[in-house]
What does this fold into?
Amino acid sequence: MTQEPSPCDLLVGADLILTLDASGTILHDGAIAVRDRAIVDIGPAAELARRWTPASTIAGKGRIAMAGLVNVHNHTPLMITRGMIEDLGLAPMYTPGVPQGHWLSEEDAYALSRLGLYEVLRAGCTTVVDFYRYPQALARAASELGLRAVIAGRVHDAEPGALATGKHSYSRAIGEASLRENAELIETWNGHDDGRIRCDWAPHAPDTCSDDLLREIKKLADAHGGNIHTHLSQLPAEVAAVKERTGLTPPQLMDKLGLLNERLIAAHCIHMDPSDIALCGRSKMTVAHAPIGNAKGGRIAPIMELQEAGARIALCTDTFSGDMIEAMRWAISMQRIHRQGHVLDARTVLGWGTRAGAEAIGLADKVGSLEPGKRADIVLLDSRSPTLAPMIDGYGVLVHGASGHDVDTVIVDGRIVVAGGRLTQADGDAIVAEARARANALWRRAGRQPVG
Ligand SMILES: [Zn+2]
It folds into this structure.
């Protein structure tokens, strides 16, 4: 007896499906059925065609499907610095004369956030952790473009003007204002869009937050739940400032204050000695590895050592680029240089950019692989792209050959948010024009004459 087909919202076909599940299942001529925002079935296209009557269909010919990418650390308003900060050698907050942070208005942050989210989404990232000043503008942008996002404020009490000249002076008023901003974000946006927008706490770094402020954040984050996002051992100046203030290294300070644990997602983790690495490993924290930004600063993070010590590794672009595939490639190359050996492989770093990221932010039951019961966060690449041939094991060519530009369609929560490389929920050209105009005005204030 043949069973009657069931209705579903969307049936997505693909010549090849990289499910990125625990056993690495790959399907040829497959399909994914989506109902009520979730994946309800995945398997051979012919079988799914018999089992489901979809309201709409995406044909599989010329497409490769994979799970949406998870970018665990980003600050979209810092798009303002792209193309300018990379040749200066420091992080934006520590660099004088760069229009960022207190230079930006909330509408500037919103326009730049839309630009950054447009870029990551078009390159196949379906979940992003994004934190900065004016976090409600970031949440608004993510909500409008249709991404899944974890948003936080940028909490600190170091005075930004002094920081840009290499000094650390702490202001209670600045700390309270940034705490308030993060608290108001959580109140307004946490759980928004049927849970697609989540909010967390994000102390900027152990040197830009005083001990008192870090203690306060721990209390608030414990009451709230979720992750704590930060930068850790990013720059020699950070390590020196923390040592001078406390006598401890940044990881030792975070540990002493109860912040170094499995809930912490810390970007960079570069300037660490073996005892720091061991401490971070024991804590089971997640390293948000930003290979592109690290390399542009001339630095390599000891992520293999951190992983061997027990830390978890996930991937991020940290603003400089929105392309997680590019970040995977850099991660492999840099560790091979660092270890002077053939470490890592395509499948491992693809796992960092999907499952490991989902696990780090507590969404492993929802995203990170294509499996029934998970949210329908699906990326379709154009299999006719010259960068995706030949396709032998599926992983190698994707990581070593492809780029975000090969992404054709992006589905988040069962909704098509990028089709044919273009946003469906907003006008991409208008986003670029608006961000460019606002960035130009800010750079003019910084004494630079934009050429475009
Ligand atoms: Zn960062």
